[in-house]
Amino acid sequence: MTIPQARLTCIDLHCHSRASDGALTPTELVARASERGVTHLALTDHDTLDGLAEARSAAEEAGIELINGIELSCQWKSQTIHVVGLDFDARAPGFVAAVAEQTANRWRRAAMIAERLERLKVPDLLDRARALADGDVPGRPHFAKALIEAGVVKDTNQAFKRYLGTGKPGDVKAYWPALETVVQWILDAGGVAVLAHPRKYKLTATKLRALVGDFQRAGGQSLEVITSGQSSGDLGFLAELCRREGLWASQGSDFHFPGAPWCELGRIPALPEGLVPVWQHFRQPVAGQSAAISR
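Predicted structure:
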């Protein structure tokens, strides 16, 4: 007789759907996560809660535990930083109002991108980009697709190189609230504040330690130790920083679209020894470590 084996716990706490800048609907995202062996998933769309209800319905059907999530943009020393909120009350009135203002900021930015690209004479560029975002706030990837469809550029790389990349006309910096403000929003909603993908800001080690210090003083509790595109050196540095500062460790694929094997749902190495997983501090804690699933 074959004895059934318990399903491995696989926890992915950072991913995106079409509600922000991902390629899949929340339902498609959850289905893919299930196929990849994910057992606990946080949908962390940028500055919006719009995908959570659909994702929760799909997760219930797929047998996945969905954790409330969001990735909020903020400012630290004139630099845009992202803070992931986890396990918060998505109905908390103050939090809902704050997220609505973040969404309004994104719409203002989208309108400015379209205005700066008017010289390309693409009719209704903002509407085209919005349609590609399924009616939600379009980001630069959506504008790139609109320019491709209009025949202005041949591919996304060319769109960013000519019009949307750093220093180009469509590179519009949005106004975001301060780091301390965003962390407090999450805490007030009963959630956990996580400093997202710390090495992607390209800060020196000294400046990153300063950021982590300010994040902690604001009430931040967790550091994203594992995410896509990291080197083993990055992982070791962040693990040691997490241990030294007494922060909880988080992890996530930062999945946006299929076809990028280095950034796939559930493809997350095991947390290094000596770290305290953030999921052990959720309102309904998840026991133990998350298994590394490499397929």
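Summary: Confidence is low (pLDDT under 50) at residues 1-6.
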